[in-house]
Amino acid sequence: MMNSIKILSAVGIVTISCVTCLVVAGPAPVTPHQTGDRQQGGAVMFFAAHQGSLRDIEFNPIIFNQVLVNQGSAYSNDTGIFTAPVAGIYQFVYGAQLCRGEHNNMWDIMVKGSRRLSCHGQVSTGGTSVNTCYLMQELKKGDLVWVRQRVGGCAWASSSSTTITFSGVMLAREGVSALGEKYGSGSSCPLPVQGHRGAFKSSAPGQTAALSSIGITILLRVIFLE
Q1: CA-CA distance, 192 to 199, in Å (whole number)?
Q2: What CA dihedral angle connects 166, 169, 82 and 173, to 10 degrees?
């Protein structure tokens, strides 16, 4: 009889604990930034090309005057400069088909007037190749980014080709990635957050489940050891 009572008590405890876990955890929270950005079309990306070759002289900045994509309107084809509309992490790509012959092909991706990345490409006489440079950079709102060609560089393009290009995309806004997850907090552990009525609740449903499991284990040991 005593064993039956213990078993029924254990089943009851497990059931109540599981229901409590589901109620406390509740639905997964929706990140306000992510929802708002998608509703307002908050993506930032651009892709632009330079029409005609860039031969031997300095271009600072290179003005990519053929704009193919400019979502967020952050790139200016008047100045050749990208202006970060919001703080976040961005990736930029510069690509150029190299001219034939001996040239000092050097390009820089500039951020706020300082060189952040330099890339060099060289081909033998009579040959050609495409040189591609990548930069991932955390920017503040209003930071300027552009591409500079150094003296002696040579990139080839016709008036209609897209063989000299500059592109960029925002990967994450400050504090929120493109998937809605927080970054840059300095901690990978979920912390309790305060609800609108002052009550603290777990910032992750997994914490509630873990605490419930510990409580179940302790109560079951007490019951069956009596």
Answers
A1: 10
A2: -160
